[in-house]
Amino acid sequence: MEDPEAHFTAFHTQMLLVCGFDAVRCKLFMSTLTGMAMDWFISLPEGHITSFAQLSRLFREQYLANRTPAPVSYDLFDVKQFQGETLKEYISRFGAQVAKVGTTDEPMIVYAFRKGVRLGSFSKSLNCSRPDEKCTTAAPARPRAQIRTQPTRVHEAATERKHIDRKCTYETRRTQPRGRAEGRREGNRPLRHNFVVELKDLIVVPNIADRLRPPVKSNKVLGPHKESWCEFHEAFGHHINNCLALGYQLDELVKNGFLKDYLVEKQTGQSSSSQAASGEGQQHEVPIHGEIHTIAGGFSGSGCTTSQRKRYARSVMSVEAFEDHLSDVDITFTREDLRDVVPHDSDPIVISFVTAGRMVHRALVDQGSSADVMFWPTFEKLQLSPD
Amino acid sequence: MRTTFTDGVASRIEKIRYLVVNAPSVYNVLLGRPTLNRIGVVPSTSHMKVKLPSMEGVVITIRSDQKEAR
After folding, report:
1. What residues in B contact A375, CB-CB < 8 Å?
2. Nearest to A90 by CA among A160, A164, A169, A154
């Protein structure tokens, strides 16, 4: 059974043509019923219906559950752009829903629109322009208004938005860390090495030119400075000395040692060694953002009183004749040792040994323990006197 | 308590002072740092082995039993 309200609306429009009286309307209404509703109508007691108003009230009461709930403004949030749905289709669908809901809460409409748009360059551009409130509110609102008034202009609106889109993605590119190739460097700028020749001369040296990956050629302006020419990209927009893509590639070549002959040596003697050291360190250096210490705790193996701890510290500091019968043996682990090991993630080392004439299994080699511990059940099984 | 570490070829006998603890545990014995350092045990978790020098200067290799460890 459909929505009773919708049924009534359809019936009333038909009745406008016939403009029948109350009794005629009741009779005609019966003819519109089918199936279950017809059964319901038949089950009404005879002589029960006196007016059409009564009939419609009964009908409404009977099929109350079938009524579709009145649209509320929050329904806008359910209007999502489907996969493969074009922006134009989505906007028209969204506009239809807005008309149905009849809300005038502009910020909420904008918000719902932003939520509904599929992730992509357009939604990104919407997000990127968030600080600019006016732009955000105006952008979705404008095409919506156009849908209401002139459906034919939707296409125009869409193209207009595409224009906004393009403009915004450029801003995104500038503010956010670089994507793709640059992304793996976590936004670090390339090192600026000092070369003995100009960069533009350097990149045409045949040996080096072979190793550089040429960028995709385009006649777009690649950067904010329209007068600067980049010989590497062969495009305007930035100077070659500020070219990021070239910087990264040269960086790599320097690291691999291809550009040794072209690098400017640092003048002072001490810095050349430190440069080598820092160059060495750079490859392994991990940025440390902070250190985490514990407040309490620490090594407790020496004892629990201060004097015991002091004594232990003294014994550690003092040079004693160390029993070095170990030193003449080199202990190594080889691939051979790895051969009979079942691959594992976190298996502990559990060994067996003989003590007090008995084989003790399940002895954990525990480098975290500052004492050798035997558990009471084991001790009992060894059948030793408890002293 | 005299404890013998052996791999079937060489062996080493050491006196170990155990701390006897009345607590439930899946292990019988925990060999802690005092012993490991004193007798020069080198454990390698990736190789699942423990190596230690014997008195005669031979390296004793003790395999960890992975089945028992689980």
Report:
1. 20-25, 27-29
2. A154
A354 contacts in chain B (CB < 8 Å): 3-4, 6
What per-residue confidence (pLDDT) applies to B70? 61
Domain assignments of chain B as residue spans, ordered by start: 2-69
pLDDT of residue A189: 58
Residue A337's SS3 state is helix
Q: Per CB distance under 8 Å, which residues of A are interface residues toward B?
A: 301, 325-326, 328-329, 331, 333, 337-338, 340-342, 344, 347-356, 360-379, 384
Residue A201: predicted pLDDT: 73
* Shortest CA gap B20–chain A (Å): 5
Does a structural domain hold residue A277? no
Pairing state between β B42-44 and B49-53: antiparallel
> What is the torsional sign of CA A80, A84, A86, A89?
negative
Mutate to test the interface with A, among B14, B28, B41, B50 (most CBs of A within 10 A): B28
CB contact under 8 A, A369 and B30: yes
pLDDT at A119: 73
Same domain, A196 and A157: no
C-alpha–C-alpha distance, residues A351 and A356, integer Å: 16
Answer whether residue A297 is part of any domain.
no
Select from A265, A289, A306 the last residue of a domain: A265
- In residues, how long is chain A? 387
* Pair (A260, A346) in one structural domain: no
Asked whether residue A19 carries a pLDDT value surpassing 70, the answer given is: no
Whole-number pLDDT of residue A302: 59
The number of distinct structural domains making up chain A is 3
Average pLDDT of each block of 10 consecutive residues along chain B (70 residues)? 68 80 86 83 83 78 73
* Cβ neighbours around A230 below 10 Å, total: 23
CA–CA distance, A131 with A46 (Å, rounded to integer): 69
Domain annotation covers residue A14: no
The H or E element spanning position A373 is strand A373-375
Q: For all residues of chain A together, what is the average pLDDT?
A: 68
End-to-end Cα separation, chain B, in angstroms: 27
Strands (E), A149-276: 225-230, 235-237
Domain with A247 in it: 182-265
What is the C-alpha end-to-end distance of chain A, expressed in Å? 90
CA dist., res. A188 & res. A184, Å (int): 9
